[in-house]
Amino acid sequence: MSDFVAKLDALFQPVNRGDAPGLVVGVALHGKPIYRRGFGLASIEHGVANTPWTRMRIGSTSKHVASLAALLLAEEGKLDLDTGVRAYVPELPAGPHEPTLRQFMAHTSGIRDSLDVGFVAAGLTIKPKGEGLAVQARQRDVNFPPGEKMIYNNGGYHLLSLAIERASGVPFEQFLKERIFTPLAMHDTLSVPSDFEIHQGVATMHVAQPDGTYRRGIFPSEEVRAEGAIISTIDDMLRWLAHLRGPHTVGSEASWQQLLTPVRLNNGVATGYSLGLLVEQYRGVDVIHHGGTVIGGTCQMLTVPAHALDIIILSNGAPVNVGELANKVIEAVLGEEAFTQPAETIAASAAFKPLVGALYASPTADMVFGFGDADGKLGFIIHNSPAIPAREEQGALSLAFSRTVTGPYRVRMEPLAADGIAPQTLELDEAGTLHRLEKLPATPPLAEAGKPLVGRYRVPDLHAQAVIEFAGDALLVRIASEYGPNVLVLKAYSADIFGWQYTGQLAALGGTLHVERSGGRVTGLRVNTLRTRHLHFERVED
């Protein structure tokens, strides 16, 4: 027992500081807690330390709890998870392909993500209650037809909350408390829709600044629900994990089987994602897990059913990867003899040097894809995302859905030349959909490429207006929405493709912009991000 405790203490020692935010960790075997620690500060402002009783947001780890709530209502005949969503949310626009609640839960609905669309419109401006539904109701297009692909979607879970509330006849937060948290003795767990609410014992979320200071993390919505609203403690989450493994007292075994069964796309490709949970393997050992990210904090919840090992890590701003830490906890507790496979091989940038910096696009630019360096690792860049480290396997590079919340992606590397030049073409497999990509030519001068874009645009799906203009040497997209302005700084990748990255707390996100022309004149723009596809900007005549 003391051997792995010492290993875990050493693992978390770097965040055991008295001047910075940290995390709380809970580990249990066969339902019995064997490690409960708090590290760092719950509040820098007040000098309060994290303890095993500290409450924190669990972010997107909330999603499978909401999925169970929907399944409970389905057991009672109050929800049909496989009927069109407009039966429960008629405010949504009618379309040729109507998604279901189950597809919302599996991220295969194809609708756009209201949270991501909100980032484009107004960055981290706080959106009021009702805006999540309003954003979804005004979307005139979708990312893809239901079931065709998988793109992580907070908006779908927000709509699921409304369906649960309407079908049950009580507020969503009350339903979770009465039907799930109270029966499982999770007395310190609540669904809290706004970071402006004050609840006892909740840690402050901290966002590190370049100068070494911190800002308070506030999620940009006053109505967070199934997409990531739960606050909890490590003890409550360990109770939840024990129940997740079974036996189950809340929900039928048939409902839990649905909750834990990975879905397949229309083409038969298995995603590894069930209804709010990832069901996969770590080094040959079956695991069930889900992470969560909020502004200023992260979470990782994981169980190894065969060993009845449960792990929960909640961070309020510690500079760590909680998913990687959870995997290290598995290794420390179970030992090497538990694994049948070695650790995955992450591609090294040095081994694929010709690819670093190369950028590719499909003929319609519905996929813009490239390679970048991520601290010595070769990463995939998808619609100007940060470089996400890729796995090297049998002549291919791949990226699992759990790494990027889209995909999975796979690129065969036979075309890689030995002459130090990146290949001119690539074939990218996105969950069974093949993209034939062409390498973009040398980047044109920004002034030359950007000049045709200058002008005014209308963006109905954002309920916004936009202006593209030069400010000195910078090409800017200035977006004016009802909740505030946003400014995107463009970089030219070709005459028709531009990219941007957000600044501040969204600096890890970005997107691409594809120019539409008629008769040689720019008539509109199509914006893509990791989670939003072909968002249309319509050119306005001067």
Description:
Helices cover 20% and strands 30% of the residues. Strand 28 (510-518) and strand 29 (521-529) form a beta hairpin. With 542 residues, the chain is of the alpha+beta class. It has a nine-stranded antiparallel beta sheet with strand order 17-16-15-14-22-21-20-19-18. The chain contains twelve helices and 30 strands.
Mean pLDDT: 94
**Strand order in the sheet with the most strands:** 17-16-15-14-22-21-20-19-18
Measure the end-to-end span: 74 Å
Question: Biggest sheet, open or closed, and with what strands and sense?
Answer: 9 strands, antiparallel
Overall helicity: 10-25%
Strand content bin: 25-35%
Q: What is the SS-derived class? A: alpha+beta
Question: What is the general shape?
Answer: globular
Radius of gyration: 23 Å
Structure characteristics:
542 residues; alpha+beta; nine-stranded antiparallel beta sheet; eight-stranded antiparallel beta barrel; 12 helices; 30 strands; globular
SSE diagram, text form:
Layout: H1 2-12, E1 23-29, E2 32-39, E3 41-43, E4 48-49, E5 56-57, H2 63-75, H3 101-105, H4 114-122, H5 131-137, H6 154-168, H7 172-181, E6 190-191, E7 206-208, E8 214-216, E9 230-232, H8 234-245, H9 253-259, E10 278-282, E11 285-294, E12 297-304, E13 309-315, H10 322-334, E14 359-361, E15 368-374, E16 377-382, E17 388-389, E18 391-393, E19 396-399, H11 401-404, E20 409-412, E21 425-430, E22 433-439, H12 446-450, E23 455-459, E24 464-471, E25 474-481, E26 484-492, E27 497-501, E28 510-518, E29 521-529, E30 535-540
Antiparallel strand pairs: 1-2, 1-13, 3-4, 5-9, 6-9, 7-8, 10-11, 11-12, 12-13, 14-15, 14-22, 15-16, 16-17, 18-19, 19-20, 20-21, 21-22, 23-24, 23-30, 24-25, 25-26, 26-27, 27-28, 28-29, 29-30
